[in-house]
Structure formats: C-alpha cells, structure tokens
Specification:
The chain is of the alpha/beta class. 23% of the residues lie in helices and 25% in strands. Strands 2-1-3-6-4-5-7-12-11 form a 9-stranded mixed β-sheet. Bound molecules: zinc ion.
C-alpha cells in the first residue's frame, strides 16, 4: 500500500439515463434538493438527469438507447444526430470529454425489472475498482459485484459511466418500469452512499482493513428467448429460473418452456449464473437473460 493515491476530485451522480427507471430519477432529484446528502470534504459532486425527454414521455428512450451511445468513435461522429445521440454529445461535453474527462468518477443509477437486488457493475479493471468492490461488499453484504466486459477498452464501451476517468453502474431491482418501490430506492441510496464514503476514505487515505478477496460474477454472454425461423417468440423463461438471478444453472437444467409445453434445457457445458432474467427492457432484442461465471477479485 505504498503507491501514491490519485485523488478523486469531481464526482457526478447520474439518474434517468433510461427515462422509465424511477429510482435513479427520484434519487437524483432528492440529491439536488438536499446536496448535504452527497457532500463530502474531499471532492465536489454534481448531479445530472440524463434523459429528461424520455422521462417526460415515460419511456426508456425516444429514438435509441442513451446508454449505448458513448463509444468514443460515436461521440465524434457528426452523422449520429437523433435525440439520444445528441444528448450523449452534450453529456460528454458536460462530464467528459471521454478520455480526458473533467469528471473523475461517475455513479450511474439504473433499475432492472429482474430480481437482482443491489448490484454494483464494474466495466473497467483496476485497483481502485477492486478496493471499491471490497468496501461495498463489506458494508453491504447483500450487494453483488458484477464485472461487465471489463476487458474492453473504455473507448469501445458504449456506456455513459465510461465517460468519466472512473465510473460504475448501480443497478437495483426488481422494479417494474415507471414504478417506484421503497425497498429498491433505499438499496440504491445505501449503495450510492457507500460509494461516496469509499471515495472520501480513499482520498484521505483512511480506508479500513478490507477483505483480501471478494466474490464477484463476470459477464459471459447473453442468450435469446426461443424463436422460430420467422423471428417470432415460441417460448418463455422457465418458471424455475424466473426471479432466481445469480442462482446456478447447471448443464441440462430447464431454462425455457415452449408455448407447447416442451422444456428446453440449458445446452452449455459449464454451470452459469444468470442476471437480468426476463428483463422487460430487453424484450425488443428478444434477450432472455445474461449468463455469468463466478470469479474472485483479489486485493493486493
Ligand atoms: Zn437502465
């Protein structure tokens, strides 16, 4: 622990990247009204409602998913001009620019309709993230740490949180679209507070003794709902899998049920751990769930 710490001076808390995920929208509003809730001594905090028009329309997005618009090449592409593509450029100017950002750390607040509880999603590797994962898991044992394609360079990530020098996603469910649940809101608030506390302790070199290793999941791939050759859905997520995010699916276990009653087994060769099971927002792409492996984050 002799390495010189690089301080986090500027933090942005972002809500409403998806206009119908209400916890982050209401939490951002609350933090704007009561800035003392997010104030810490060693850094400044700004908040941002990312997609106000989608929220106004009570939709995830108007023209395209805002959280898929932040690849460095897309941000520089003048031909991408629909509402969300334009918003991405505005947000990049405000919080970034990506690669040389004025924002040191972005906390991006999201909801899922899946039964994922409080999940901290890390899209980049590195010591700071490992320390954060250990701290959040220690303070909030119900939290799940997820590594999501953190082998990709930041410039190739399309997620808003990759605009900052550092960035994470706080993903909490289950919450239906356009609905506010108190339990989910409280979990999002708690995890956000732990992240802010972590940054304060990190900046002031006062981190407590942390566990040496932290269990996490790591994204492998997404799988689609059963479809016929015409692209029509012919089945659904199996009832044994529904709501059982993070619970192991072994090879051969039923994963889908076709509308004619036929059970479809999981055809992979290794046990996997599902997330975003039956996520409502992914139906437009016919995605059934994400599959993950279990990994350990080692702190050294
Ligand atoms: Zn979202």
């Amino acid at each position: 622990m002799t390495a010189q710490l690089t301080k986090i001076s500027t933090v942005a808390i972002v809500g409403g990247v998806h206009g119908n995920e209400f916890s982050g929208i209401y939490l951002e509003r609350r933090y704007r009204a009561e800035p003392e809730l997010v104030k810490r001594s060693s850094f400044s905090v700004t908040t941002l409602l990312a997609n106000p028009q989608a929220h106004q329309a009570n939709k995830r997005y108007l023209h395209s998913d805002l959280n898929r618009q932040f690849k460095t090449a897309d941000l520089a592409n003048p031909d991408l001009t629909n509402y969300e593509q334009s918003r991405a450029k505005v947000i990049n100017a405000q919080l970034g620019p990506k690669g040389a950002a004025k924002t040191d750390f972005i906390i991006d607040l999201h909801n899922t309709t899946s039964n994922m509880g409080p999940c901290l999603i890390l899209t980049q590797p590195g010591r700071l993230y490992n320390l954060l994962a250990a701290y959040v898991k220690m303070k909030m044992p119900s939290a799940v740490i997820s590594r999501d394609e953190d082998h990709f360079a930041a410039e190739d990530h399309a997620l808003l949180c990759t605009v900052g020098t550092y960035g994470v996603i706080v993903e909490v469910g289950p919450q239906p679209q356009s609905v506010l649940r108190q339990d989910v809101l409280e979990q999002m608030h708690e995890m956000t507070q732990h992240i802010l506390d972590f940054i304060e302790l990190y900046n002031t070199d006062q981190l407590p003794v942390l566990p040496k290793r932290v269990e996490a999941i790591r994204y492998l791939r997404s799988i689609k709902l059963p479809m016929n050759a015409a692209g029509e859905r012919i089945g659904m997520v199996h009832k044994n899998v529904q709501d059982r995010d993070y619970q192991p699916i072994a090879p051969g276990a039923p994963i889908f049920t076709l509308f004619d009653g036929t059970e479809v087994p999981y055809d992979g060769s290794e046990t996997v751990y599902p997330t975003f099971i039956n996520e409502a927002a992914y139906y437009d792409n016919n995605l059934a769930m994400s599959l993950n492996e279990k990994v350990w984050i080692e702190l050294e």
